[in-house]
Amino acid sequence: MAIENDIATEARRIVATGEAQAITLRLLGGLAIRLHAPSAEHRALQRSYPDIDFATPARRSSAVENLIVGLGYTPNKNFNLLNGSSRLLFYDQANSRQIDVFVGSFEMCHRLPITERLTLEPLTLPLAELLLTKLQVVQLNDKDGRDICALLLDHPLGTTDGETINSARVAALCAEDWGLWKTVTLSLDKVRQLAQRYELQPDEQQTIVTRIDALMAALEQAPKSLRWKMRSAVGERIQWYTLPEEVQRG
Fold first, then answer.
1. Number of domains in the chain
2. Is 167 within a domain?
3. How far, CA to CA in Å, does 119 sit from each of 123, 124, 168?
4. Which contacts qualify for 230-237: CB closer than 8 Å, 24 or more apart?
5. Please, are residues 176 and 228 in contact by the beta-carbon 8 Å criterion?
6. Is the pTM of this model over 0.85?
7. Do residues 83 and 66 touch, judged by C-beta distance below 8 A?
8. H-state helical runs in the chain
9. Three-state helix/strand/coil letters over 5-27
10. CA–CA separation, 173 vs 40, rounded Å?
């Protein structure tokens, strides 16, 4: 079957083909949020989606590469050779589209243990992890802000998954890692400001801000690990994040 022009249809095709071959792939990133959050199509929050991002379990790089190449994509051979145990890149030249696969964990500005809950949802990562992959961005940009606002606008916080943002999960991961906690709290402050700049209705802005406040409270109240407390004592004197290198698009 040829690569689909519609990016959401194509993402579903890849996940379904993987399932048929006993290969677990789950969407993350902006496209995954759009599939959960109708407000991503709001005129104040909509944006383009040029790429498809996936997560897959550790030690599945070879199987994933065979799968995606077999579906018509061109691999970034040099990148995959050097980084294949943790990340893979592929290109669809006809649609100017890139596929990014995180293997075993998600590592950008911070490392997130995403694959232990990889099968909770049939198509994407759980909402808590989708939110964290955006909030862990140190240099939060406009598209990240729009994605986060759409997710918070459409989904309540709670202690379960499904169509609820599991704030207990977010708080637990941040309570183990001071650096992640620091970046997430800074990002939430930035999103609070962005939400008031976007052309949203007052009640929509208030929903986002209220959920940000509730998430901040959950982060504050979660019991912190000894490792968190030791790193907190060092604070901002040592850089607490990584700035990932931008990979040239194919």
1. 1
2. yes
3. 9, 9, 18
4. 231/177, 231/178, 231/179, 232/178, 236/182
5. yes
6. yes
7. no
8. 7-20, 29-36, 61-70, 77-83, 127-135, 142-154, 167-176, 178-195, 202-221, 226-234
9. CCHHHHHHHHHHHHHHCCCCCEE
10. 26
Those residues whose C-beta lies under 8 Å from the C-beta of residue 3, and which sit 6 or more positions away, are 10, 71, 72, 73, 92, 94, 95
Q: Encode pLDDT of 147-196 as tens digits.
A: 999 999 999 999 999 999 999 999 999 999 999 999 999 999 999 999 99
Cα torsion angle, 39, 143, 178, 232, sign: negative
Nearest in space to 114 (alpha carbons), one of 123, 126, 98: 126
Residue 22's pLDDT band (cuts 50, 70, 90): very high
Rounded (5°) CA angle 224-228-234: 135
Please enumerate in sequence order all residues whose Cβ is within 8 A of that of 171, keeping only pairs 6 or more positions apart, or say none: 215, 218, 219, 221, 222
Closest by Cα among 48, 44, 49, 39 to 150: 39
Q: pLDDT of 188-227, one tens digit each?
A: 999 999 999 999 999 999 999 999 999 999 999 999 999 9
Report if residue 240 sits inside a domain: no
Q: Residue 249's pLDDT is what?
A: 65
Coil vs helix vs strand at 152: helix
Start-to-end CA span in the chain (Å): 22
Is 13 within a domain?
yes
Residue 250 has pLDDT above 80, yes or no: no
Q: Which of 51, 81, 65 is nearest to 23 (CA)?
A: 65
Alpha carbons within 13 angstroms on the beta-carbon side of residue 42 total 21
* Chain centroid offset of residue 201 CA: 26
Asked if residue 193 is part of any domain, the answer here is yes
Q: Mean of the pLDDT values across residues 36-62?
A: 96
State which residues form the domain around 62: 7-234
